[in-house]
Write a structure and sequence with these properties.
4 helices; 461 residues; mainly beta; four-stranded antiparallel β-sheet; globular
């Protein structure tokens, strides 16, 4: 099987001290997916711009914008570690937060073993314990209303999927017929639909759990032996995951009540695919695809466009997408180079970019942080979750963007102001040939991007 996370909580290689967002860090969290952040890129293609010209442009833009009086206060972008539980040394972030971004989950080490936790903003993380007789538990996702968490726990009877609630605590979801383990991967916004996979006499099966029906196998694609479900839409109507589709063939699927399990195929040049995230109405599915050489690529599937390769960051060799916004236009995941990883975000406007750079450019103070794993994005694309290194410690994170940074392209640093600082930010990206400086999205970073940005900057929004 491909694309399964694994982690032992050890500090990533070379991450014993604070590192900037341009530092390589190895991740213990990923098996076949990992990468580095962007080292300094080539500064070629700027021959038509001299230092004097750059300086004049900065001064001129600042003077013109100051004269125009364009300014406003920055909003409260922020990032917070999900912390540790008592006696522990690290935590791993979950796949998303409650709808309001105030509640998250994940797992952390403790003297008694790994424990799922519930984290509440400004209150910290609290262990959820285990099922009776268990020695470990993991938290995957919190419901949209913040009242339920799903994951997997050891128990006196074996490994079981669970649903935790404020009222009832941790409750086992049981087993499929003739099975001996279950895993819970995702939950609907109201907490009434849970998906995952479990063993049966015929192999692993994707399942849907409901309050009224309990565990229900979703079967497999034709000629399949194993399947697994990894995400469910907020309304519980759409489920995605993987299924074998024949010997040595694994395909992403989209399941719905009316349509059953639909094979989404594989991207061009790939040999297998797995789906890890689905948007609100089932019109955008994201995941990872494996190539013949063993490398992986993140994809987004849509009904009109089919499988779309989301590309890769410079010098990276692999990528996996795991989260998608409600409209399907913001995707998060993790990329790799050798044994080092970095979190990424993809949008149609930006393409794939380093999540560290994306958040920093939008006003989030990442001092002390290096985000090496992207795990979730909210429906409105303003809350991000994952795992990072914070002053040498591995910790889950939740990051918030309070401003809509796409409404005005001139507001390059997304601080809700249009002023000389936007120009400085653009020029820094332009000189360093950052992917964000490809302002006109033509695949090149050259003087046309500079002039197009200046035109928008002077025109306003």
């Amino acid at each position: 099987m491909i694309f399964f996370y694994q982690g032992d909580g050890t500090l990533p290689m070379g991450a014993t001290e604070h590192r900037s967002p341009h530092t390589e860090v190895a991740s213990p969290m990923m098996n076949s997916i990992s990468c580095t952040t962007g080292a300094a890129m080539s500064r070629g293609g700027l021959g038509e711009l001299s230092v004097t010209r750059n300086t004049l442009l900065k001064v001129g833009a600042a003077a013109l914008l100051a004269f125009a009086g364009l300014s406003s206060a920055a909003l409260g972008q922020a990032i917070s570690p999900t912390g540790r539980i008592s006696g522990g040394t690290y935590s791993i972030g979950g796949y998303g937060t409650s709808s309001d971004g105030e509640v998250a989950t994940g797992y952390a080490d403790s003297p008694g073993g790994s424990r799922a936790f519930r984290w509440v903003r400004d209150q910290g993380a609290v262990s959820l314990g285990t099922l009776p007789g268990g020695t470990f538990s993991f938290g995957n996702v919190v419901s949209g209303n913040g009242e339920f968490i799903v994951g997997t726990s050891g128990s006196g009877d074996g490994i079981r999927a669970y649903r935790w609630s404020v009222a009832a605590g941790m409750e086992s979801l049981g087993l499929l017929p003739d099975g001996f383990y279950t895993f819970a991967q995702s939950i609907s916004a109201d907490g009434n639909v849970i998906v995952g996979f479990g063993s049966t006499a015929l192999g692993d099966r994707a399942y849907r759990w409901t309050m009224s029906g309990g565990l229900e196998s979703l079967g497999t694609l034709p000629n399949g032996f194993n399947s697994g479900a990894y995400s469910v839409s907020p309304d519980g109507q759409f489920i995605v995951g993987y299924s074998e589709a024949g010997p040595d063939s694994v395909h992403a699927f989209l399941w719905s009540e009316g349509g059953g399990m639909v094979d989404l195929g594989v991207p061009s040049g790939a040999v297998s695919s797995l789906a890890y995230g689905v948007n609100a109405d089932g019109t955008a599915v994201v995941g990872g695809a494996e190539r013949p050489d063993g490398t992986s690529r993140a994809f987004r599937w849509t009904p009109g466009g089919g499988m779309e390769d989301l590309g890769a960051l410079p010098i990276r060799t692999g990528a996996l997408a795991v989260g998608v916004s409600g409209d399907g236009n913001t995707v998060v995941g993790t990329t790799r180079f050798q044994s080092a990883t970095t979190a990424f975000v993809w949008t149609p406007d930006t393409g794939m970019v380093d999540l560290n750079e994306y958040l920093s450019a939008r006003g989030v103070n990442l001092d002390g942080w290096y985000l090496f794993e992207g795990r979730g994005v909210s429906a409105d694309a303003r809350t991000f979750t994952g795992t990072g290194v914070y002053f040498g410690e591995i910790l889950g994170f939740v990051a918030w963007l309070d401003a809509d940074c796409t409404s005005c392209p001139a507001d390059f640093n997304c601080d809700s102001s249009i002023n000389s600082q936007d120009f400085y930010e653009f020029m820094e990206n332009f000189i360093n040939q950052s992917p964000r400086s490809d302002f006109n999205r033509d695949g090149s970073r050259d003087s046309r991007d500079l002039f197009d940005y200046l035109n928008v900057l002077f025109t306003g929004c």
